[in-house]
Amino acid sequence: MHTSAASVATSPIIFSFAEDSFHAAADELRAAFGKTVTIERLGHDTGCFAAAGVDIAQVAAACLQRPVVFIQHLMQEVMSVPSRQIAQTMTRVTEMTLDLAHAAGVAAPIALQVWSSAGDTPFHYRPDELRRHLAQTLGEHGFTITRGGQSHILSVCLTSQQTLLGINRTEHALTDWPGGRIGLAKSTAQISRAEFKLEELFKVFALTLPQHGLALDLGASPGGWTHILRQQGLSVWAVDPANLDPRLTTDPQVQHAQTTAAVFLAETRDVFDIIVNDMRMIPDMSCKLLVQGARRLKPNGLAIITLKLFRHEALEDVQHSLMILREAYDILHARQLSHNRHEVTVVARRRPS
Fold it and tell me: Phi and psi at residue 294, in whole multiples of 5°?
């Protein structure tokens, strides 16, 4: 195994994406690094990217700064093995994982993450079974292994044809979850699954909301995002012609305007600390509404919006939507999150007038 800086800069980078978003992710990588890059789909939600002189740090920086929105997770591949050779037993992949851990020379605890992007899997064991075995073996050889929260991630990605092993800094992975798949448990207090989108957003980008103040939730019904905003300590104007969950209607810090977002923004005199928008609306219309509503948002206030992608030209729609938002906002983050379904979540900050 070669671990020099030169070899790392030319070794493949494994990227994860939503199942329907491979072509959009590939187009973004070509736009960032040139049309001569090599891109291959390895599994239903995993691809491989390689370009001379480009390392994972550069790809991660592009994902955050351009932004590249359809890539959810990155991994620097260091070694691989045909999956058929390890499908029956874990022996060889265990030996390779030990070799990789020793060669990496990371003294601190390491996060170990294992996931599968195989369709008709050839493996006779599950990813969680492999992870437990690898964690136990690494522990027996003196390594401190955790699931996350460390400076480096040792990754094993199972695909139908190849099993890929790699190690890289957590900051370059984009998320600290296996393959970018963030597992969130449904609580008994949850109002709707839409809450997962905000919860994931807060984890992926370490986003901090104002602890106090007034929030505006456009397209609020049944109230999942209003519920999350209330948990953050914010008072909320929930705007939607439809009803809210009864658990919110008794909350004195929630006011419900049963009207459309456009009418509310035209009539309100309130100024908000944050505006969120999860309306099922054509993306450019939704963004134009937020631009119009920027005057009701405090300078440097946050806006969070999910862009609903109705067309095959998803990348074109996202780029056009971000252009519209930039009329009034600076784009902080844009990503198709694990809990986004045919949509992209954008975080923007209102520019001072």
Answer: -60, -30
* CA-to-CA separations, 335 to 110, 208, 239, 314, 352, in angstroms, rounded: 26, 17, 25, 13, 24
Can you tell me the distance from the alpha carbon of 197 to that of 178, in angstroms, rounded to the nearest whole number?
Answer: 17
Q: Can you point out the beta strands (E) in 240-294?
A: 254-257, 272-277
Residue 102 DSSP symbol: H
How far apart, in Å, are the Cα atoms of 328 and each of 210, 272, 276, 293, 335?
20, 15, 15, 10, 20
Q: If you ran DSSP here, which 8-state letter would residue 112 be given?
A: E
R_g (Cα) of the chain, nearest Å:
22
150 in Cβ contact with 157 (< 8 Å): no
The reported pLDDT for the residue numbered 131 is: 98
Is pLDDT at 3 greater than 70 in this prediction? no
8 A C-beta contact, residue 221 and residue 242: yes
- Angle (CA) 203-76-172 rounded to 5° is 35
Q: Could you give the 3-state DSSP secondary structure of residue 25?
A: helix
Mean predicted confidence (pLDDT) in 146-162: 96
Give the confidence band of 4 by pLDDT, cuts at 50, 70, 90: very low
| ∠ Cα 11 169 90 (to 5°) | 70
Tell me what the mean pLDDT of segment 276-284 comes to.
96
Q: Residue 306: which H helix or E strand, with range?
A: strand 297-308
The answer to whether 168 touches 153, Cβ cutoff 8 Å, is yes
What's the Cα-to-Cα distance from 47 to each of 15, 157, 220, 243, rounded to whole Å? 5, 11, 36, 42
Q: Comparing C-alpha atoms, which of 281, 264, 342, 334 is closest to residue 303?
A: 334
Half-sphere exposure in the Cβ direction for 298 (13 Å, CA): 12
- Residues contacting 135, CB < 8 A, separation 6+: 112, 145
Domain architecture of the chain: domains with CATH: 5-180 (3.30.2130.30), 195-350 (3.40.50.150)
